[in-house]
Amino acid sequence: MADIARELNPLLRGWLEYYGRYTPSALHPMLRYVNQTVLAWAMRKYKRFRAHKVRTSRFLERLVRDHASLFVHWQLGMTSTFA
């Protein structure tokens, strides 16, 4: 997960700076898409989450609570869109 965050964070910072300044209404759907993609990745990566979307979203919510600094948008509080 840290490798994915390291790859995505520069891209997310750029999107947050641009969309946050010019079209902030486009920010929420875009960050929701990122969270949904992380959810889908976790469901593919871990066998115990394969067919359990709710269980995976709870896992990611715990991850956000414990490691909020992992992704840039999690630091800003954009975390409630996993399910």
Number of strands: 0
Assembly type: single chain
Q: What are the segments in which pLDDT stays under 50 over at least 5 consecutive residues? A: none
For the biggest sheet, the summary is: none
Radius of gyration: 13 Å
Q: What percent strand? A: under 5%
Order of SSEs, N→C?
A: HHHH
Distance between the termini: 19 Å
CA-based shape: globular
Residue-averaged pLDDT, rounded?
90
User: How many separate helices?
Assistant: 4
| Helix share, percent | 55-70%
Summarize the structure.
By secondary structure, this protein is mainly alpha-helical. The chain has 4 helices and no strands.
What do you see in this structure?
This protein has helices at residues 2-22, 27-45, 53-66, 72-75. It is mainly α. The protein has one domain (2-75). The longest helix is centred in the N-terminal third of the chain and has 21 residues, at 2-22. The chain starts with a helix and ends in an 8-residue tail after the last helix. The mean pLDDT is 90.
Task: Write the SSE topology.
Blueprint (H helix, E strand, L loop, with lengths): L1 H21 L4 H19 L7 H14 L5 H4 L8
Helix pairs in contact: 2-3
Quick tags:
83 residues, mainly alpha, 0% strand, globular
